[in-house]
Amino acid sequence: MDIPRHDVVVIGAGNGGVSAAARLLKRGSRDVAIVEPAQEHVYKPLQNYVGAGLARPSALTRPQAKVMPKGAHWYRAAAERIDAVRHEVVLSDGSIIRGGDIVIACGAPTDWDALPGAREALANGPACSTFESSLLEQTWERISALTAGTAVFTFHEQPASGRETALKPLFLACDHWRRRGVLEAIDVILVHDGEGLHPVAEIESAVRRELQRYGVTLRLRTRVERIEGGEITLSGPDGAATMRPDLLHLLPPYAGHPLVRSSGLDAPDTDGFVAVDRETLQHRTHPHLWAIGDAADLDDARTGGALRHQTQTLVENIQRRRTGRALSHYDGYTVAPITTSRRSLVFGEYDARTRRAVSTIPLLDTFAPRPWWYVLDRYLLPQLYWHGIVKGRL
Known about the structure:
Blueprint: E1 5-11, H1 15-26, E2 32-35, E3 40-42, H2 47-51, E4 61-63, H3 64-67, E5 73-75, E6 79-83, E7 88-91, E8 96-104, H4 118-124, E9 127-128, H5 136-145, E10 149-155, H6 168-180, E11 186-192, H7 201-214, E12 217-219, E13 223-228, E14 231-236, E15 239-243, E16 247-249, H8 258-262, E17 289-291, H9 304-322, E18 333-341, E19 344-351, E20 356-357, H10 371-389
Parallel strand pairs: 1-2, 1-8, 2-5, 8-17, 9-16, 10-11, 10-16, 11-12
Antiparallel strand pairs: 3-4, 6-7, 7-8, 13-14, 14-15, 18-19, 19-20
Helix pairs in contact: 1-9
């Protein structure tokens, strides 16, 4: 059988996969293939604004064909297994392709089955989520319809896609209820299974300040264990308790991609995520295999800001390995864009490895909520994404 061979095979055509492929082509890769079955490309950071009634659903997506880098070979199938030794990728249509280097950028799927009763609660109430594109209009309907009662928002430690963005729907909902004059009639509760809200002190302080401003009750070391008939069971420091919220916004459980486990590319300490060197993004065992984004075990916050730095490091390192040069390091940079109202946002930058605040924007305090950060996140970044990031220009 004649197996097609490509210079680089990229698995996944989300933010990381498309932007990495575009950068590779711009840097002179002879032949880049992308494996992706989806026909639509979603700009996920905008989902919170759609779910809060501040953006149209049509702004979220574009045809995948229009996002694909010019010159890339697109395989419209899913990757089912990677044979790292043979440099082969087995596709869902039965075909096999080979790559000199293979980049895993397939993301991390939501695992609603990990929370008993979640699927039924999302279908029939009271649950909603801005982390599923199919639930966004339903989420806004439930937020806008609530005028009194109890609203519970969940937040959890890693793995989670875009850790800080889970706070956006909470603050946007509170801002909406305050504008309508009903916030005082709603008991808003944030449950988080961690010891603290954020590992960076400046971001922790900013979030707590906003929680206090809206009168939100914070329950740490607490999680929703199950949902049944509209009733939720919480487990926390004082044991188990039940309650019946009028609205329940869920940050989904996430899991390592099945492709990673089926290919044996994880490790006992990565919980189903790709076992890579966290600085070079290179697989620990197979030097021609790389991973970025939510699929990789990188000990970062899994945000778009982090991913942009990862793709830069990835492309540089593929070329460095081929020429025998020392590999460059991903520094753990990320950014925490937390929308605190429809006019303000905290744009906190930090190093996810050292848990320290950093700043790439001199003279501006990125940890204070400001209207210009909101404008950047809501209006400018989507344009930069479609016209710059996915094209490998930024």
